[in-house]
Amino acid sequence: MRYFSPTANHRRLGLVCLGVGVQKGPLPVVGPRALDHHVAVVVTRGRGWFSHGGRPPQPVTAPALLWLVPGVEHHYGPDPRTGWEECFVDFAGHSVEAYTDLGYITPDRPLAPLSGTAGVRHVVDGIVRAARTGGPLLEVEAAAAVHALLVALRYARAEVSRHGDAVMDALARDALLPISVAEHAARLGIPLPELRGAVRRSTGEGVKEYLLGIRLSRAKELLARTDLPVAGVARRVGYDDPGYFSRLFSRRVGMAPGRFRAQQSVHDTGRRS
């Protein structure tokens, strides 16, 4: 186990790592207790139990994630006959709110099954190695790893809709088509509420926001790397009305398409459409 003492400047990064650990065997029971920060406890092998917010204990079978959130009492432990293997990361910061809104942190679902733990262990092992090495960059390196940890946990969560990634892959493939969200659902052969739920679970956002992000990213690439007029770019990313596209782009990007092109364009003879 290693613990960190980030400064006020480190906390401006949005997330800071307060501690990391890897344990196994007949570990002691934890709690009941409440903390003032977040902890992600990942059970990588074995089984045990977990109580959260004073509720009755729930069985835990690896691989599983336990979310410990500030101010909420928790109590957990491995099966005393076999023990379990776990890794954990303590963290805090104002970015927690955004990660929660996007569905990466789920205080309302403190126990989550995982599809695997390889990605999570890779991140945790990296924090442990950095802690052993030390040095002036340790706090920033550990803070960056917390962001990576939340992404790895999101990939590992097993609570995906029965359509899984196939829905998201197909939606991304068709994102530039000039069709409505309802038409996307019809193309995929699923009810509209189910599509909305799948996107929300995968991205933490609505379908329109997800599609808009893909369209704007593609529009930026076309503006920077081709000589297509703005109207042509608009059509390529699914908008028949170039005026609407320009207003939308300006509002979301913070500048008009033409200004973006002037700042980002690659001025060489190899540009093509």
Protein model, in words:
With 273 residues, this protein is of the alpha+beta class. The chain is built from eleven helices and nine strands. Strands 1, 2, 3, 4, 5, 6, 7, 8 and 9 form a nine-stranded antiparallel β-sheet that branches. A hairpin with a 5-residue loop joins strand 4 and strand 5. Helix 3 packs antiparallel against helix 4, helix 8 crosses helix 11 and helix 9 packs across helix 10. It is globular. The termini are far apart. The C terminus is likely disordered.
Blueprint (SSEs and pairs):
Layout: E1 2-3, H1 8-11, E2 16-25, E3 30-33, E4 38-52, E5 58-61, E6 64-68, E7 74-78, E8 84-92, H2 95-101, E9 111-113, H3 118-133, H4 138-156, H5 165-173, H6 181-188, H7 192-203, H8 207-225, H9 230-236, H10 242-253, H11 257-264
Antiparallel strand pairs: 1-2, 2-8, 3-7, 4-5, 4-6, 4-7, 4-8, 6-9
Helix pairs in contact: 3-4, 8-11, 9-10
Strand content: 15-25%
* Mean pLDDT figure: 90
List SSEs in N-to-C order.
EHEEEEEEEHEHHHHHHHHH
Query: What structural class is derived from the secondary structure elements?
Result: alpha+beta
Separation of the first and last Cα atoms: 54 Å
Briefly say what this structure is.
By secondary structure, the protein is α+β, with helices and mostly antiparallel strands. The chain has eleven helices and nine strands.
